[in-house]
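Repro:
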Amino acid sequence: MKSPAHFAGTAARCFRDLNMSKHALQHEPAALELPTDSHRTHALHTALLATIHVDRRHLDQACHYGDEAMVHAGAVRSGRVRQRLTELTKRLHPHRDVPVVAAFLDRHRDVLVAA
């Protein structure tokens, strides 16, 4: 059975894909209401939220969620998680001269290159 967090994550992804990031962020709190041991879903949702925040130019928040995604990603082996991290990296790349983004990319360089 799917949880409310799963549906919130799906709604956020759909709105993001429709370039409606403001609407996507309305699902942010519910998408994070997950059991602490759901590392894969945490990684997927936090990476997704990071990409949405990049789209909104909230780079500090994007990197914060990116850091969370990296912590959870370290606990799982998932192609979808790697795909989300790759997508996050691509979205952050145009902002690589912004100090918070440069620090994030440097901090996770080894993992993001492998993703």
